[in-house]
Specification:
heterotrimer; A alpha/beta (about 290); B mainly alpha (about 300); C mainly alpha (about 280); B: about 300 residues; MetI-like fold; about 65% helix; C: about 280 residues
Chain lengths: ~290, ~300, ~280
């Protein structure tokens, strides 16, 4: 197991396929106290229980431990309502765990912050700001000087190919364009970790592929760690270095996706890919027509 | 004054169904036709019911009488600028009437706009600042709702007592009424603000204050539209009511004095001017507000 | 399945005692908050009142006491005005006026609003003037009503009736337009007749928005009714206020206002509750 402090080289360039040893998943990873290196994201026996208005208790996350290295692109799959988004919200700092620890960059998470950018499923662009002001939001909020802001904004506008729309209102853009602006807004803030909560849901295949490319380009450019929640297996296979399946609040399956980047359509239907796909589907319990584990 | 009645002549059925043929006439001609019908009904009513059988006085003046009452506005002009003060013996003149109407209408509009502006700014401003504290917001929601329910128009005699007949009294009255409305509306809007934009902003590194003033505030603006239009309608009523109850100048004062002299024609004309003024003010307010939130979907 | 040690076997725990406790706690919290808010305002009020004389801003305690004193009879006024009645009698007059005119205005408004939405001829002929009247400041009608009806009862509630009618008409019309397109097609594809559609689909669908309009009209109506009574009525809360203000009995004016405020809140809550019950099918 290597300690990727180089960080910037996408892990898929390493050639050996690996299953992570047990100890990384049961929370006993030995990390020197106070050390900043090691994992970009780490969860140690994290549980989260919600109390509903009706008084019912729901255990959304049940004793999960995982570790993600800097620069990795990890996809989290699973049926709806079984803990994926809760995991993301825990890492983002929007909610606190009932039990266990959530660490980012070796430090415990206490609340939201610019080191963990989030792209939501719904449209969160600030409609009263033009596109360029949206991209500049994080920079403005953190007090970056105007000249530098403008340079950064121009750079990202070019990267997402929306230079012509710099002064447009969000309401004038299509759904796919808004997604691009949201992604650029978060990347422009240079977060160490990027959390994406089913950001491309509802878009058709072609638009989604285009957005994947934008996202992967920005990822290569920045070297950040990505934690990507989705319910689409194909999307996970197209994007991820590693895949987790979360079911009933626990990690049901975990594997490395050892396909070369950039991932061609052929690679995505190769024998290896299909094999992985089958394992994933089985762990989700995607065989409703036959007797299966739900 | 409903705020719901902002002119919207495009009320097509949602499914876009056209059950009846429009007979080839454009909507604009129908507007003209409908107003012509109103004029016809008016004239007929004036001719048939317009004279009280009991007293012989005119209770519904016909169209020509109403329009020719315009010249009586010169009796409400203070004198100067080429037209004399009729109380000093000068004649009623058309120019005097223009000045008289302009002056009094101007005073009414000034009170209205002043009260509205102060009320909106203070109501939204204070409401927003108070809403920062979730505790204060929950504490004050019910009292704010309660104050909204109070028949504020009934406070007019009180204000007349407190301020006698000064302009400031009218403006203060309108401002208080509008303040209560907008305060409650702002509290409500902040309570209903969706949390995901706040979360997004926090995750981009914005401080709590930055988020509150630069994200939450713009996001609640569209929701304040109905409150603002209701406030406008209420301001008209409040200003006129305060003028009914003892102001010396203003459109409402004219109407009260005219009532004492039994001049229905002048009252009718003033009401017409009111109709025009009110609809124009609503159209203007709507236009302005739409510009303010032109980014909203 | 890779499971962390000590994982629980159930995802959802059902705790009915806990659910009840949460519901009750929630209700208590709401009531406590409301009371605390009122207490805060009352405190603020006493503070302001302490800074001025009673004739200007009376304190809450004096005001409440005056309500009690005036409730059945107002001795101070007996020698000034013939048979002024107590607070109760005048409030009843006002409440009767407002409630009846709001009810009449609502019924008339719904009928007219629905008709407007569904008859193109009516719509094109009546709608422009109606929309303009929606912005008209209703108090301007007072001189007319006084000239036409003197101090008859209709001169007071006419304003409320007019305002309610216009407001409910406009809202019912808009709500009907929103419903008419697809619901109607769907209903007729299931074999519903026109009248069945009217009573069983259209009316329930427009009730929620109409209730909102009724509440707005009711809230404004108290003000309009009071102003109309101030300007000339034999009886009523507004008349009391007028009489008190002439006699500079500020404490009693506040008393009347507080009473109307409470009545307004209660009636609004009742209408809102009634509306929620009618549309209990809505999510």
């Amino acid at each position: 197991m290597d300690r990727p402090m180089e960080g910037l080289r996408p892990p898929s360039q390493r050639t050996s396929r690996r299953m992570y040893p047990e100890d990384q998943l049961t929370g006993s990873a030995e990390l020197q106290p106070g050390a900043r290196e090691g994992y970009a994201i780490e969860l140690r026996s994290v549980s989260k229980t919600f109390r509903l208005e009706t008084g019912e208790q729901v255990i959304a996350v049940d004793g999960v431990s995982l570790a993600i290295r800097p620069g990795e692109l990890v996809c989290v799959l699973g049926p709806s309502g079984q803990g994926k988004s809760t995991l993301l919200n825990l890492i983002a700092g929007f909610i606190k765990p009932s039990e266990g620890e959530v660490l980012v960059g070796g430090r415990p998470v206490t609340g939201p912050g610019p080191d963990r950018g989030v792209v939501f499923q719904r449209d969160t662009l600030f409609s009263w700001r033009r596109v360029e002001a949206n991209i500049a939001f994080g920079l403005e909020a953190r007090g970056v000087a105007a000249a530098e802001r403008r340079k950064t904004v121009e750079r990202y506008l070019k990267l997402i190919d929306l230079e012509r729309f710099a002064k447009a209102w969000p309401k004038q853009l299509s759904g796919g364009m808004r997604r691009r602006v949201a992604i650029a807004t978060v990347f422009a803030n240079k977060p160490d970790v990027l959390l994406m909560d089913e950001p491309f849901v509802g878009l058709d295949y072609v638009r989604r592929a285009a957005l994947h490319k934008v996202m992967l380009d920005l990822w290569q450019d920045s070297g950040c760690t990505i934690f990507f929640v989705t319910h689409d297996i194909d999307e996970a296979l197209a994007l991820a270095d590693r895949v987790f399946v979360v079911s009933h609040g626990r990690i049901a399956f975990e594997a490395t996706v050892d396909l070369d980047r950039p991932r061609s359509t052929e690679a995505l239907v190769s024998a290896d890919a299909n094999d992985l796909r089958l394992k994933i589907m089985q762990s989700i319990g995607a065989d409703p027509l036959t007797e299966g584990e739900a | 004054m409903t705020g719901i009645g902002t002119p919207d002549l495009a009320g097509e059925p949602a499914g876009g169904r056209r059950r009846f043929d429009i007979r080839g006439l454009s909507p604009r001609s129908y507007v003209i036709v409908s107003f012509l019908m109103i004029l016809v009904i008016w004239e007929v009513a004036a001719r048939t019911l317009g004279t009280s059988r009991a007293t012989g006085a005119t209770i519904i003046p016909d169209i020509t009488t109403t329009l020719s009452a315009f010249i009586a506005y010169s009796n409400y002009w203070v004198g100067g600028l080429g037209a004399g003060d009729t109380r000093m013996g000068a004649d009623e003149t058309w120019w005097g009437a223009v000045l008289g109407l302009g002056y009094n209408l101007g005073i009414t509009l000034l009170r209205l706009a002043g009260g509205l502006a102060v009320g909106v700014v203070l109501g939204v401003g204070i409401g927003f600042v108070i809403s920062w504290s979730g505790l204060l917001r929950s504490l004050l929601s019910f009292p704010a709702h309660f104050l909204r329910m109070m028949p504020l128009l009934a406070l007019v005699p009180l204000f007349a007592m407190w301020f006698s007949n000064k302009n400031v009294g009218s403006i203060f009255f309108v401002a208080i009424a509008v303040f209560v409305l907008m305060f409650a509306a702002t509290l409500n809007a902040v309570r209903n603000a969706p949390p995901y934009q706040v979360q997004f902003a926090r995750s981009l590194g914005a401080s709590a204050a930055f988020v509150y003033f630069r994200v939450v505030f713009p996001s609640i603006l569209p929701e304040l539209r109905s409150g603002i239009l209701l406030s406008l309608g209420f301001s008209w009523n409040a200003t006129l009511a305060s003028e009914f109850l003892g102001q010396r100048y203003g459109l409402g004062a004219i109407v009260m004095i005219a009532q004492e002299f039994g001049r229905m024609d002048l009252i009718m004309l003033s009401a017409l001017i009111c109709i025009v003024g009110a609809s124009l003010s609503f159209a203007l307010a709507d236009r302005l507000f739409s510009w303010l939130v032109r980014w909203a979907e | 399945m890779l499971e962390a040690p000590g994982a629980r076997s159930k995802s959802i725990t059902n705790d009915s005692a806990g659910m009840l406790r949460t519901a009750v706690l929630g209700a208590i919290k709401k009531v406590a908050l409301g009371t605390a808010g009122i207490a805060l305002i009352a405190l603020l009020w006493s503070f302001i009142a302490a800074g001025t004389i009673s004739a200007l801003v009376p304190g809450p305690i004096e005001v409440v006491r005056s309500i009690g004193d005036n409730f059945f009879d107002i001795p101070e006024l007996r020698y000034i005005y013939y048979s002024s009645g107590g607070l109760l009698e005048n409030l009843v007059y006002t409440v009767q006026n407002v409630i009846t005119s709001v009810m009449l205005g609502t019924v008339g408004g719904m009928v007219f609003g629905i008709a407007l939405a569904r008859s193109r001829i009516l719509k094109l002929c009546i709608e422009p003037p109606l929309l303009v009247m929606g912005t008209f400041p209703v108090v301007m009608l007072l001189p007319f009503f006084t000239m036409w009806f003197g101090t008859d009862r209709i001169a007071q509630y006419g304003l409320v009736l007019f305002y309610t009618f216009i407001t409910v008409t406009l809202v019912a019309r808009q709500a009907t337009l929103n419903v008419a397109g697809y619901y109607e097609d769907f209903a007729s594809s299931l074999g519903a007749s026109r009248s069945f559609f009217r009573t069983h689909v259209l009316l329930p669908a427009i009730v929620p928005e109409t209730i909102g309009a009724v509440r707005i009209s009711l809230a404004a109506g108290w003000g309009f009714e009071t102003v109309a009574e101030i300007l000339g009525a034999p009886l009523g809360a507004g008349r009391l206020i007028q009489v008190f203000s002439v006699a500079i009995m500020t404490i009693d004016i506040f008393g009347v206002l507080l009473c109307i405020g409470i009545i307004a809140i209660v009636t609004d809550a009742l209408v809102a509750a009634g509306g929620r019950w009618i549309v209990r099918w809505k999510d």
